[in-house]
Structures are given as structure tokens and as C-alpha cells.
Amino acid sequence: MTSILVALCIDGKDPHGLARFWGGVLDWPVADDGRGIWPSGGTGFGIRFNATTEPKTGPNRMHLHLTSTSLDDQRSTVERALELGGRHLDVGQLPEEEHVVLADPEGNELCVIEPGNRFLAGCGFLGEVACDGTRAVGHFWSEALGWPLVWDEGEETAIQSPAGGTKIAWGGPPLPPKTGKNRLHFDLAPSVADDLRAEVDRLLSLGATRVASGPGTEGAVALADPDGNEFCVLPAR
């Protein structure tokens, strides 16, 4: 048994506004409830937006990398993000670095990667979920999702679905201090219907821990990975 990655969830004060921004940037349709976006064709994972009153207190441990096919394509993505309410962000990037760092309307970081980036070749427009994390947590998520490791060098790891698409990568220590619940987290579901308890037990055996609170979804179980990052296991759909 493995878990299915259902969605990347982003907490925000205006979930509908975040859905409009990210739906516009990625060209993904917005769900009927206005709080989620899903890739066309039903392949891959979606992005859900949850309401929170908590302010953003520091850099997120996760952010998205968007790919480019040319310099014109990179500029077009940046311009579209700015028109939709994004802004440029200075995180200490060097002048010679070719990626562009932006923030969405609520300050969540994202990067528009330069054309010709070999690590993200073939990954599609949403190339990567880039994470702060240890080598151990990359191995945890590989086992949790059944996604093979496509990079495991030093403290850096990356996994990718056997079907291809977006990579999830961890850059190794040191980790930034946690200042409350992460604004971005994964929602999983068991690959086998009615096996929520068995899947939670499996994830605990891999190194997950239980946490006190999760989303409002009835029956969901809130856990944390070995680096303390929250995630939720939803009842199978």
C-alpha cells in the first residue's frame, strides 16, 4: 500500500483570491467551490486553499518552481504573475542567478526557473515543489508515496512519480526554525478504499508522528513527517 498525493494545500486569509492567482498563473481551472485548482485532464495533484487567520511569519519551508521554455516564456510568466497580484521578492539571490523570485498576493514564495534547467527537464510547467528538508525526510516521502528517488546526493534528495511530472525536492540542512504550523502542506489519501487506519499505521511506522489538529475534513488524520512538517491523510475518495 502507498498513499496518493491528492493536493498541495496553501493556507491563506483569502483562499478564493489565491485560487484566482494560482489558477491564472498555472492556467488550471478553478474548482466550483472557488478554493481549489486542478490540472486539466485530471492527472497529477491539485492545489487547495484553506482559510486561516494566522499571519505569515517567515519563509515557507515549501515553494513552487515554474519552468520556462525560453527567455521570452520566462518573462511572460513573470509578467502574468505580476498582473495577477504577485510581486518581486528579494531573498538574497545573486545578480548572476537566472531564476526570478516572486511572491503571490499573500507573500508565498515562488520561482520562475530559467530555460535550459536540466534538473527540471521534462517535468512540465509546474516543475518542482522545492522544500527545506533533510535527507531522511526525502526517503520518508519516497516510501510514503511510492515515488522513486531521482536524486540522492549528499543531503539533497528528490522524488518523482513513476508517471513523471512535478518533482518534490529537499535541499538538506540546516532547516529554518518552525514558527508555527506550516502554511503549505500535503493532503494524502490511501491507495486502497477503507484502509485509512492501516495507511496511518504504515506512515507512523515510517517515522511520521501524530499532531493535535488538522483540517476540517471529516475523518482526516493529521500527522507530521520526520522533520515536523504537518500533512493530512484523508479518507479514500
UniProtKB/TrEMBL annotation:
Residues 122-236 form the VOC domain. It comes from the Bacteria. Gene3D superfamilies: 2,3-Dihydroxybiphenyl 1,2-Dioxygenase, domain 1. It holds the Pfam family Glyoxalase_6. PANTHER family: CONSERVED PROTEIN, HYPOTHETICAL FUSION PROTEIN. This is VOC domain-containing protein.
